[in-house]
Amino acid sequence: MRAPTALNPADRSGDAMNNTANPIGMWNFQFISQGNGSHNPPIPDGANVDFGYIQWHSDGTEIMNSGTHAPSTQNFCLGVWVRTGMFTYEVNHFALSYDATSGVLANKISIREQVTLDPSGNQYSGTFTLNIFNAAGTQQVDQVVGTIAATRVTVDQMTP
User: Fold this and answer.
1) pLDDT band at 18 (very low <50, low <70, confident <90, very high)
2) Where are the domains of the chain?
3) Tag placement on the chain: N or C end, fewer CB within 10 Å?
4) Over the range 55-93, which residues count as b (16 or more CB within 10 Å of their CB) and which as e?
């Protein structure tokens, strides 16, 4: 993955690489299981793995609020993003997961996304990979893959 860099003014306006839209802003997202039939336990295709809100920032950073994780186990993750082509982006999030009872760090998680922004700038879709590591971050203990779909949240939107 390339290191994210601060976007120049052309990127902020969406003019870079003849792109008339950009991902900067707030999004309502869903992670949908695809190809996890051999997972233990199996996760059926089409199952909702996660949902919530993401904000993409002009400096190449982003923050995600996860709707499937309780605040006591941690429901925010931080990430970086970079443009990889016309309307395409790569995202790398890092999350921490805690045991709800003890409060002890349970896992470290890397969430990788490859997304394509719709030319309208109001939707994006792509793939995700959740790589789950032990608390030390030294051994991968699980992986979940699937697709992502997101819709832009607007200032005049009335429903969450």
Assistant:
1) low
2) 9-152
3) C
4) ebeeebebebebeebeeebbbebebbbbbeeebbbbbbb
CA atoms of 155 and 139, how far apart (whole Å): 42
**138 contact partners, CB below 8 Å, separation of at least 6:** none
Tell me the pTM: 0.85
Burial class (CB in 10 A: 0-12, 13-18, 19+), 123: middle
pLDDT of residue 12: 44
Determine how many CB atoms are found less than 10 A away from the CB of residue 128: 22
Which single residue is written with the structure tokens 């607007």?
A: 154
pLDDT tens, 28-66? 999 999 999 999 999 999 999 999 999 999 999 999 999
The rounded distance, in Å, linking the Cα atoms of 150 and 52 is: 10
C-alpha 25/C-alpha 69 separation (Å) is: 23
- Whole-angstrom Cα distance, residue 147 to residue 113? 9
Residue 88 token pair: 């395409």
Q: Does domain 9-152 correspond to CATH entry 2.40.128.120?
A: yes
